[in-house]
Amino acid sequence: GPDNRDLFITESESGSVLRTRWEHPGQPLFCHA
């Protein structure tokens, strides 16, 4: 989100995208596994 508190995670088995709200804002993260 605009306040950098949302963390999005892709669950690999079902392909679901999960979202959680982080207590402290952070930096954008990118993972290329």
Beta content: 25-35%
Strand order of the largest sheet: 1-2
Distance between the termini: 23 Å
Question: Which residue ranges are poorly predicted, with pLDDT under 50 across at least 5 consecutive positions?
Answer: none
Share in helix: under 10%
What summary fits the major beta sheet?
Answer: 2 strands, antiparallel
User: How much is the radius of gyration in Å?
Assistant: 11 Å
Number of domains: 1
Counted beta strands: 2
Task: Output the structural class.
Answer: mainly beta
SSE string: EE
Q: What is the number of helical segments per DSSP (H or I, 4+ residues)?
A: 0
- Shape designation: globular
Mean pLDDT across every amino acid position: 84
Task: Walk me through what this model shows.
It comes from Neoroseomonas soli. This is SMP-30/gluconolactonase/LRE family protein. InterPro entries: 6-blade_b-propeller_TolB-like. With 33 residues, this protein is mostly beta strands. It has one domain. Helices cover 0% and strands 30% of the residues. A two-stranded antiparallel sheet has the order 1-2. Strand 1 and strand 2 form a beta hairpin. The model has no long low-confidence stretch (mean pLDDT 84).
